[in-house]
Amino acid sequence: MRRLKRRINVLFLLTIFLISPSLGRDYYIYATAESEDEVALVRFDGKKIHVEKRIPVGVWPIEIEGPHGINVSPDGEYWYLSMAHGIPFGHLYKYRTGSDELVDRVELGLFPATLQVSPATGLLYVVNFNLHGGHDEVSTVSIVDPEEMVEIDRVETGIMPHGSRLLNNGLKHYSVAMMSAKLYELDAMRMEITRTLSTGKHEMKKMGGMKHKMGDHSMPKEKPTWVYPHPNDKFLYVVNNGTDEVVEVDVERWVITRRFQTEKGPYNCEVSRDGKKLVVTYKSVAKTAVWDIDSGKELAKIKNTRKVTHGVVISPDSKFAFVSVEGIGSEPGSVDVIDLSSLKLVDQADIGKQAGGIAFWKMEN
Amino acid sequence: MRLSQVFIVVTFSATILFSQEESEEPSDSLYFQFAPDSLYLEVGDSAVVTIRLLKNEGESANSPFYIHGGERGTVSVYPRISDSTGVANVLVKVYRPGDLSLNVRSISTKRLDRVSDKMPVTVPYPPLARIEFDQSTTQLYEGTSVQFIAKVFDEAGLTRNETDLTFVTTNSSIAEFDDFGNLNAKSTGRVRVTAQVDNVTSSINVRVVKNPVRGMELSSSSGEVRTGDVVHFNAKALARGSREVEDAPIYYSYTGIADYGIGLPAAGQMSQDGRFVAETSGLYTIYASSGGYSAQKTIKVVPREVTRKVELVGYGLVPDVFTSDLWIWPGIGKHEGKDFAVTGTWGADGNTYFWDVTDPKNMITIDTVKVDARTVNDVKISEDGTVGVITREGASNRKNGFVILDVSDPYNVDILSTFNDDMTGGVHNTFVYDNHVYAVNNGRKYDIINIEDPSNPHRVGVYELKTPGHSIHDVWIVDGIAYSSNWADGVHAVDVGGIAYNERNMPMIQANPLLARAGKGSPSNPTPISYKNDPTGRNHAAFPFLSESTGEFYIIAGDESFPFGLGATKKEPSNPRGGFHFVNFTDPDNPEEVAIYQVPEAGSHNLWVKGDTLMAAFYQGGFRILDISGELMGDLYKQGREIAFFLSSNKEGHLPNAPMVWGTQPYKGLIYFADMNSGLYAIRLVSIDAKKETD
Questions:
Q1: For domain B308-694, which CATH number applies: 3.10.20.310, 3.40.50.150, 3.20.20.70, 2.130.10.10?
Q2: Is B695 a residue whose pLDDT tops 50?
Q3: What's B215-302's CATH class?
């Protein structure tokens, strides 16, 4: 009996030891509300999530401008926001973290979307999604000097470029164009496209073969929506929204090495900092999936709290995934918190309508 | 951990630490060296610049940096990055004139450690080529003054708005310019007038001749008028024998004494073609002068006295969401004799409300249509009362567009079809006209959708401007002319099937100069007729107005401006601004803004014109009715033309006790309007001194 008690005590202490870092830690996340023209700052204390602040964004009051992509500078000093609509061009906004005061903005192309600052060049790379274009207009990646908020170049990629991320070393930028079904590698220093890769099973010839018609527009089946690098910078994970799969790309060999078949409508993904888990949002079925990268197995599917699952960001300690979920109509958007150990939904917070872009700011003990 | 493991960890950490110290110079010791240290290039020229990143005493930093040319499209550079030692030979090419720069920044993981610098690149504007005088005045009368204007062009043929354009004459005792380009003719003689900027000059000969004017005569179209009435003055410069000197310049001015007090202004506007309009009642004296002679005439201005009272007939409270646009129409079939209304919702749940307003004192909601949207911004009903169109923005699947409804039984509205092909960006406004929906698509263009079979809509045409960065907000169609509002591109009139050119329509076609030019357009071939840009970029609404009292044809262009942001999203009142601009299109080739209606500290939104009366939604300024009869000139608000206003609000409104009028529609002797914060209203005008009803 005494032996059992001792074992229980040891187990208890071990549990406390294991969970205490995250229990005493606050995680801060920014999330956009695209139909509210608002950005929410939320704090997760290890158990509960709190909306710390709702920050109105944009300048065009009676029309929805659509805050879409959001990211925090590598040093955590600023957050950057892409605003989809202007008259007619979208903008990139720069805010100071913490005080959330507007620093500056610069006009970009049509419907700027995902963005990131390179830790190597210090430049910011943002795709001009042009969601509402004619589905046949080749678009661009805008390159912005975020210190002076000046757009210094635009590099042409494909049709409706959406997901984009840099390697962790900041030297290469990757983006996927939905209606070109291609992955684009951009040299962050030289500001040139260096390689492209079809994200489908076969190389397409000028969008022939693997496409179907919708109205007058020819669209490839894959419709890749997201790309995210492994922490080791050796692999990329590309979400093919149209063919319900995530493909793994070997960066050096520039080939697809694995395909993970998902549920319907995968949209965004992120790899945990420890390189073990791949979290994928399933937009069409309102779920978030956690995959084991080594085995290529789906570990769990967690039902989200609204009907349209959107983006995901993982805490740098690889413990929690924060998922933005849009909702429909007047439903508030949500930030759902998933424990990546128990693979359970921990908590959620209501934010503005159509929660979309989501970015991790900081952890504090 | 064994000792050997500890040793390895310590050794590895030390290696990282020391290598970092070695490779990352303190930022304040790094600097850039440019050779040459500046560039002066013509547009299209290029040069090579050697850039080095150095440290301390001029040693190579052995660290790469990147190079860029600043704002896109100004300076191109190649390569973008230095070599690994921190040296770059950069080919610089310039594309635009101005004070540009070549920019460099060192590369490091820490933002604050980065060192940046810039080298000036001066690109001169193309040399100025010529100056053209705007007028052909070559003869002045002694004692008169004429303003000279000239345009400056550069070698690229572009107009250059130089501020240092100066005018001089060869003999200032004969004629001399003031600081504002006015040439004052002092005595008879000949001078050469020269316009100069930099080294470019242009000259014309001007002769000052003896002024034959020996008197002035002034008459007016009326001796007593109301505020807002435009009086035409006719001045004649007369020589000996009362002969008229037709080319003598005449200057008009006025003084006045207001009726209502000491120290308050007798305000009005005097044009130099002899038109005068008073804003306040009183006695006004108009002066006409030429060459030292003058004449004057005093007129009496009385209050316009058009004010009436508004009687609230009924309202339908919408307490839980923001209300957007409205439409009122008569029932058909089994509902003949009844009247109905539809209102949209803003930033809400995609609901559209249908109302029975047959008894406007007791408006009741009779049906609700819910679609996947956050905002149903616009609602429209077809002329025959069978089909409704509601717009969608913020659909969860991004398939926005519009929804076509069967509204023949407003108690049981059915969705007939949705149309979202290529409309993911959202449809903000529509107009239904002659079996077609004109849908403002993604703020870029309007698509024209045939709804002869409303269950199978199909696109037949598109109208999109070609101007750079164009954007559109709304479209309104009357007699086959589409009037669109396009922010900075202003109002555009487009022929989408002007009314038939026959005897019955002839009076209408003759009255509307735009209709007279129509005839080539159709829904599948929208054909532009005329336009007027809006330099403020605030054009949000456009409504045609054929003045019944004067026959002049205007497009009333409404602003939308929220300089202090929108309070609705924070559940606070907003404080917009703006007004309605009256642009006279009687000559479609030379449309001219002649008047404005601007309520102080209120924001204009939608409008409707019936006869010579403007019904205006003025957001927080409430609902406003304006007399727009007669010739229009100047500031209509100040002229006492306001007939009435009504500050709609409700303590149970979605935003309590705060007017925010969105749009309006006159209907069967009443005026309906939608208030964003509180719902649907019906009012009527009554005379100021009695409860007698007026239509």
A1: 2.130.10.10
A2: no
A3: mainly beta
ipTM of the complex: 0.75
| Contact residues, A window 43-62, toward B, CB-based 8 Å cutoff | 56, 59-62
B344 touches chain A (CB under 8 A): no
Where exactly are the structural domains of chain B? 3-123, 128-209, 215-302, 308-694
> What tens digit of pLDDT does each residue of B107-161 get?
877 877 889 999 999 999 888 999 999 877 789 999 998 899 999 998 878 788 7
Per the CB < 8 A criterion, the answer to whether B617 and B593 are in contact is no
Q: Which residues of B touch A64 (CB under 8 A)?
A: 347, 374-375, 393-394
State how far the alpha carbon of A150 is from the alpha carbons of A28, A364, B563, in Å. 28, 33, 24
- B604 pLDDT band, cuts 50/70/90, is very high
Query: What residues in B contact A57, CB-CB < 8 Å?
Result: none
Q: Does A156 touch chain B (CB under 8 A)?
A: no
Which candidate in B72, B605, B677 is best for mutational testing of the A interface (most A CBs within 10 A)?
A: B72
**Of B518, B597, B582, B517, whose CA–CA distance to B552 is shortest?**
B582
Contact with chain B for residue A36, Cβ under 8 A: yes
The pLDDT confidence band at residue B490, using thresholds 50, 70 and 90, is very high
CB of B356 less than 8 A from some CB of A? no
Chain B, nearest residue to A325 by Cα:
B396
Chain A residues inside the 8 Å CB shell of B565? 56, 59, 61
Q: Nearest C-alpha of chain B: how many angstroms from A258? A: 29
**The pair of three-digit structure tokens given for residue B406, joined into one six-digit string:** 């069967």
Edge-to-edge strands, sheet with B580-584: B539-546, B553-559, B580-584, B592-597, B634-635
pLDDT surpassing 80 at residue B286: yes
Lowest-pLDDT choice from B12-16, B546-550, B634-638, B669-673: B12-16
In the predicted structure, residue B89 carries a pLDDT above the cut 90: yes
**Complete edge-to-edge strand list for the sheet that includes strand B401-406:** B379-381, B387-392, B401-406, B414-419
How far does Cα B303 stand from its chain's mean position?
32
